[in-house]
UniProtKB/TrEMBL annotation:
Family: Belongs to the class I-like SAM-binding methyltransferase superfamily. C5-methyltransferase family.
Membrane-spanning residues: none
Species per Swiss-Prot/TrEMBL record: Algoriphagus aquimarinus
SUPFAM superfamilies from the UniProt entry: S-adenosyl-L-methionine-dependent methyltransferases (SSF53335)
Any one GO MF annotation of this record: DNA (cytosine-5-)-methyltransferase activity
Plastid as UniProt keyword: no
Swiss-Prot/TrEMBL keywords: Methyltransferase, Restriction system, S-adenosyl-L-methionine, Transferase
Domain of life: Bacteria
Catalysed reactions listed for this entry: a 2'-deoxycytidine in DNA + S-adenosyl-L-methionine = a 5-methyl-2'-deoxycytidine in DNA + S-adenosyl-L-homocysteine + H(+)
Protein name, per record: Cytosine-specific methyltransferase
The enzyme's E.C. designation: 2.1.1.37
Cited InterPro entries: C5-MTase (IPR050750), C5_DNA_meth_AS (IPR018117), C5_MeTfrase (IPR001525), SAM-dependent_MTases_sf (IPR029063)
Uppermost EC category: transferase
Length: 420
């Protein structure tokens, strides 16, 4: 077959086909986009075979009467290099200073921070399909899937400088008093540690919930530090609890940061960034125009929240809804539980109270509403040109699970200055 008609990126992704394209591999789109992103830096070799196979599959679907060879698919792949990355909202830096990988990537909070410092992402993984959709819409790259699988790990290239990971907090089955590498098997930290052990990056930057510090009476964090320091041989300064509100966003969000450096680099001191001398409040991120009535609470729901809070207060608990004033600081945005109800706001600009969703009762006239997904994005430090391609339910979850970009950037800058 002579390739008379090149195949588009959209067709290879299956977006133009009338029926759903079932890939022969879960890694096709990820390998393709990673190849296109790394075609000029020598790392494309890790992704080429998977990329060509995916293009070959797409061509066979588009031209079912033709016999598609590997060479034809490879030629089509080269055509794509000319069209790729023209419309990516957050492209890689033109002259990268360092390479990093993005594990448990979510929607790319780490990537935004690292790219803004001159970093080039050479591998990313995330298993949530909706988060992958958002990630791809902003970075033009589909993350690989489950990082616990060996077939995913085999795509990770050599020679990157920094490993970034916001891994979940999990308990370990600690056999010894201190706990070691083997004790973390079956947890997602084990997979992070295993990748560090194999690839030996210059540095790593890990993020987790504040509760990690006291999880399992402190044994979980002690085991993590022991593995990183003793088993893997990295210099790891004491972790630090960092609050997003100290780095330019009006959100009271505390997270533990753990950084480490390969010992042969000779780094023996590290100072986490100091809080910025900047006053912030919710009005800095509040929507400038009237928002949809769908974000306003119904009288019935507001009554339920008040009763719920009163019950808890009667038991001596402080749990319940909260309304953030314009000059206040938002509570941490989190998915699930009272995540949205703990961050209600006053907004009296609404004039049309006609419901557009199936609510019980009328829309309240007190101007009480939920924050919008864009406001949550701003609370996490995501710029306004960050694309939100998913429904509200998914976007709240994604921003709630993400990192506060400014706090990550401030710390990452310190890390990069040590290794460059």
């Amino acid at each position: 077959m002579k390739l008379k008609e090149k195949i588009s990126i959209e067709e290879v992704f299956g977006q133009k086909f009338k029926v759903r394209v079932v890939e022969p591999s879960d890694y096709g789109k990820a390998a393709l986009t990673h190849y296109l992103h790394n075609s000029k830096n020598g790392i494309s070799q890790f992704y080429k075979k998977g990329a060509v196979e995916h293009v070959k599959y797409a061509l066979e679907y588009k031209f079912p009467e033709e016999e598609i060879s590997y060479e034809v698919a490879e030629e089509a792949l080269q055509y794509m290099l000319f069209d790729f990355k023209n419309k990516v909202p957050f492209p890689e830096p033109k002259e990268p200073k360092f390479k990093f990988i993005d594990l448990f990537a979510g929607i790319g909070g780490f990537r935004l921070a690292m790219q803004s410092l001159g970093g080039k992402c050479v591998f990313t993984s995330e298993w949530d399909e909706q988060a992958k959709k958002t990630y791809a819409a902003n970075f033009g790259e589909v993350p690989f899937g489950d990082i616990t699988k060996e077939e995913t790990k085999r795509f990770i290239p050599d020679g990157f400088d920094v490993l970034c990971a916001g891994f979940p907090c999990q308990a370990f089955s600690i056999a010894g008093k201190r706990g070691g590498f083997e004790d973390t098997r079956g947890t997602l930290f084990f997979d992070v540690a295993e990748i560090i052990k194999r690839k030996k990056p210059k540095a790593f930057f890990l993020e987790n919930v504040k509760g990690l510090r006291n999880h399992d009476k402190g044994r979980t964090l002690a085991t993590i530090l022991n593995v990183l320091r003793e088993d893997l041989g990295y210099y790891v300064p004491d972790p630090k609890i960092m609050n997003a509100k100290n780095f330019g966003v009006p959100q009271n969000r505390e997270r533990i940061f753990i950084v480490g450096f390969r010992k042969d680099l000779g780094i023996s001191e590290f100072e986490y960034p100091e809080p910025l001398d900047k006053v912030v409040s919710f009005e800095d991120v509040k929507e400038e125009t009237v928002v949809s009535v769908k974000y306003y609470l119904s009288n019935q729901y507001l009554k339920t929240l008040k009763e719920h809070k009163a019950r808890h207060e009667g038991k001596g608990n402080g749990f319940g809804y909260e309304i953030i004033p314009d000059d206040g600081i938002a509570n941490a945005v989190v998915c699930g539980g009272m995540g949205r109800e703990r961050n209600l706001v006053y907004d009296d600009r609404l004039e049309d109270f006609t419901p557009i969703t199936h609510i019980k009762g009328e829309v309240n006239r007190l101007g009480i509403r939920k924050m919008t997904p864009r406001e949550w994005a701003r609370l996490q430090g995501f710029p306004d040109n960050y694309v939100i391609p998913v429904a509200d339910a998914s976007s709240y979850k994604q921003f709630g699970n993400s990192v506060a970009v400014p706090a990550i950037k401030a710390t990452a800058e310190k890390v990069i200055n040590e290794i460059l």
